[in-house]
## 1
Amino acid sequence: MEAIVWFASFVASLILLMAVRVPVAVGMGLIGIAATWIFVSGGAVSQLANIAYSQSASFILVVVPLFILMGEVIALSGLGTSLFRAAAIWTRRLPGGLAVGTIGACAGFASVCGSSPVTAATIGAISVPEMIRNGYSRRLAFGATAAGGTLGILIPPSVPMILYGVITETSIGKLFVAGILPGIMMACLLCALIVIQVMLKPEIAPRVTRRVPIVEKMRASGEAAPVVLIALAVIVSIYFGFATPTEAGAVGAAAAIVTALAMRKLRISLLARALDNTVRTTAMFMLLLIGGLFSSFALTRLGVPQEMSNFLTSLDVAPWIIIVVINVFLLILGMFLDPLSILVIVVPIFLKAVVALGYDPIWFGIIITIQIEIAAITPPLGFNLFVLKRVVPDGVFSDIVGGSLIFVIPLLIGIALLMAFPQIALFLPGLI
């Protein structure tokens, strides 16, 4: 089929450019411009400039640097590490308690940070050394942290969800709310896998027998409380319609800065670093968005999404089988492309078919986000794997990869549950 040939040619061209070290965003932009010029028309190239301007000037994109800044301030000020200390104290007596606490800390930090690598780096810097110091298997320590970091893009706020919302013109507020229950479900599935592993092999996580005084528990919880309150303020304001995602992002960023300053955890140099990181990440986001829109424009003018939709909907099979095939394709693609690139490439191609099959675009956005989570912990290009190698320099990469791969299982189980029970993702948005 012609659409498959066009799409395969696009993916092959992108991989070729990546092989010669061309950034993915630039590669997609170049392919989009070249394909439009050669296969559509020279005059159509001028439309790309209009697309770049209109999309980058969209007010909704202001939410991106605001949520990124909120996460950066909390991460650099050390407020995020207080989540691990609190979670670890409350869960330490469970099988694999410190690893379970790591998942809990990642879930808490995810609620104020829209990035998976930042979540893994912030929590991993303290959790991995702590687990190893207490006799935990290095594979379990690295795996739990890498997998927990993936919650950073499922539990709102989420940078990938913002990108998905912009591309599909779906409500970002509803996407954020849709991620709450799946995020909690994924955290529970990850914790369950840790407990099962430890029960089968107790030697990988020695039990902690020392009782922690209630005063120490309260003190640790008090230190983590500001982060929890900021997260609740952001999500509750969006859910009940008190604020748009952009307004909630502004309040969250301001609250993070004020809280860190009040607790004397934020110096001017750290604030400058947070702002610098925010600008860099936002610039990368914008370049990726524009490059993706260029390639999407060319593929759309060549009829790829339309033909792909007609082909998939004409197949004489149950719709869920097609969704499974799409998920398998995403799983394979995630091994070779970075997460946001997968989203920009795949969504314009498959969304039309998914909606035609009767599935909700918000539900599909959550499925895509979980697939991006899996991509973050699968070699050879899993972001979280390399982030942990950087923040824990003495880590052996084989331990990081070996410990992380088993956590793909609960993520796949989560996708299966969402396919069987779509209301896990759609219940809360339906109440708005």
## 2
Amino acid sequence: MGCVGSSLSEGDDSPKKIQKPKPWTHPQPITRAQLNQMREEFWDTAPYYGGRKGKEDSFATKKIWDALKSAAEVELTLAQAIVDSTGVIVSSADLTTCYDERGAKYELPNYVLSEPTNLIQES
């Protein structure tokens, strides 16, 4: 039983705050166009990488993927509001692993969340 002064302690199911992803390096130097192409390919095929399966769940899964895409493309405060409002459960604070309210898993690669350390200018 809690009281007015109670607070969540370590280990409680409090929502995780989204944090900036750790720096990453692509195996080879990569241009902005190549990075954008990788991101487009991921988002086009994302429903095959997680979420709920079945026709009756396709709308809910698309909603979660759309929310994750939006969250990946904005600053942290707005990303937090997006995941909170859509019921996304953040397992990894950098958004690489999330779940929906029914427990379906959604995994995001680093390249859709942040810039690589070896991004090069196109010549």
## 3
Amino acid sequence: MDDDERREAGTDVRRAVLGDAHVDRAAAGATPFTEPFQDLITRYAWGDVWSRPGLDRRTRSAITVAMLATLQHEDELAMHCRAALRNGLTRDELAEILLQVAVYAGVPTANRAFRVAEEALRPEPDDPPEPT
């Protein structure tokens, strides 16, 4: 793929995973200083990595939540907890992921991640129904 194709594929996946409202806010908030970064993450993270066929989005979400919790990237963790619901994970599965984080990254890290996730997962009007 060339950059334009990666950007288009990345935009499609980013919208599917994070939702139109989030992507629209990110685009509207871009400045000349941050536009290159928005383009980079759209092409690279979403167009090159999230678009690959090797893992489904549900699995990618689980891995991403675990890594963000472990690294204590709270804003991104909140965003990806909400995205995980769009990708088919349940709240119970997210709790299991964070329990796994507690074992391998430490109880204080998971404690904070549980608080971030619980706040992030308060239902919002545009949330898809949770899978059963």
